[in-house]
Amino acid sequence: MAKKDYESRTEALIQPMIDEHHFELVDVEWVKEGANWYLRVFIDKEGGITVDDCELISRAFEEILDKEDYISENYIFEVSSPGLDRPLKKEKDFARSIGKDVEIKLYKALNKEKEFVGVLTDYDKETITIELDDESIMVFDRSDVALIRLAFFY
C-alpha cells in the first residue's frame, strides 16, 4: 500500500470514533523518521485536546488496527494534538482562519523572500491571498506554498 492509501484507510476507519466523541480529525500522516515508520493521528476539540482524549482514541483505535491489519511495515502509532502551529491543510482550516494572521513559507524565493506574514483574506483550490502590514495584497499559487499556518507573535 502507498502512503496515501494508509492515510485514507486510517481516516475512514477512525472518523466514526472521532465523531462519536465530538472531536475533530485534523490530519492523518504516515511518515518515516530515521529508521521508524509512524502512523500519526491529530485530533482537536473546542477548548483543546487533552492527554486523556488522545489516550482514549489511541487505545480504542489500536484494537481496530490489530483487527484490520492493513499495514505490513512495523510502525509506531501516535494520537496527539496538532499544536498551536498546525499547518492549514483542509478547507475547514482555511475557512476558520480567514481574517487571521498566517505565516507562509514558499519552496523557492519570490522577490528574494521565502517567508511572508499577513492576514488571510481569501483562498481557493489554486491560490491563497494575504494582506500584508502595508495593506498590499499578495496572491500565492498553492503549488508554490511549502507551509501555511497561523502566525503567533511572541
UniProtKB/TrEMBL annotation:
Q: Please name the source species.
A: Frisingicoccus caecimuris
Q: Which UniProt keywords apply?
A: Cytoplasm, Ribosome biogenesis
Q: Know the name of this protein?
A: Ribosome maturation factor RimP
Q: Where in the cell is it found?
A: Cytoplasm
The residue ranges of the Ribosome maturation factor RimP C-terminal domain are 88-150
Q: Mind listing the GO biological process terms from this record?
A: ribosomal small subunit assembly; translation
Instruction: List the GO terms this entry assigns under cellular component, sorted alphabetically.
Output: cytosol
Q: Which gene encodes it?
A: rimP
Q: Which residues form a coiled coil?
A: none
Any single Pfam family the record assigns to this protein? DUF150_C
Question: Which branch of life, at top level?
Answer: Bacteria
Its annotated function is as follows: Required for maturation of 30S ribosomal subunits.
Q: Which InterPro entries match?
A: Ribosome_maturation_RimP (IPR003728), RimP_C (IPR028998), RimP_C_sf (IPR036847), RimP_N (IPR028989), RimP_N_sf (IPR035956)
Concerning SUPFAM superfamilies, the annotation shows: YhbC-like, C-terminal domain, YhbC-like, N-terminal domain
